[in-house]
Prior knowledge:
Protein name: TIGR04255 family protein
InterPro entries: CHP04255
Oligomer: single chain
Order of helices and strands: EEHEEEEHEEEEHHE
Shape: globular
Structural class: alpha+beta
Number of domains: 1
Helix content: 10-25%
Strand content: 35-45%
Number of strands: 11
Number of helices: 4
Amino acid sequence: xxxxxxxxxxxxxxxxxxxxxxxxxxxxxxxxxxxxxxxxxxxxxxxxxxxxxxxxxxxxxxxxxxxxxxxxxxxxxxxxxxxxxxxxxxxxxxxxxxxxxxxxxxxxxxxxxxxxxxxxxxxxxxxxxxxxxxxxxxxxxxxxxxxxxxxxxxxxxxxxxxxxxxxxxxxxxxxxxxxxxxxxxxxxxxxxxxxxxxxxxxxxxxxxxxxxxxxxxxxxxxxxxxxxxxxxxxxxxxxxxxxxxx
Length: 246
């Protein structure tokens, strides 16, 4: 069980399922899915998303931008949503985060309802992503006092960095999974403050490496890893600001 905070920095959590191409898909699936979940997600919208598709060709990595239609289903307060598109299911929850015990059942419900209307052959990718916004009451911050993951700046360089992006990918389960961690400054909500986005994305790096029947177990394991990585990225000073609940 991970640590609990009275004022956690989490602003959005996302669980994403990308199905393999041999999973059949047709235009009736979004409507059938909506009928199953509309009691919890009654609000429905149609959106066109621009997706980037990567492929390895004779001239190296190639990128193709193509439109993709999705239905987006919301709860009444629009704090929880499900997005469904061709071979794609995402489950999102916005602040205030309802704890893992509140978010995981939403993921299970969406996944099980999709399985009831679709023969899923495999998973190309599964991802669990937690986006945190950390605001500090100072315009000049020594990152090492708050974070264990930050840019190293040598002593001959100015120590006050105006902008940066620091990221890394860490392998788990013998390379089956990876966790991508990024931190970057963002505009603060008011003057005299500093703000940072700490983005932690744990994902399946090897397509089909997890059985369809084991997906929810993978999600539970991913959540445990994210908690470990999050705690590894922050110092006790931030834990005090988040008001850890003992």
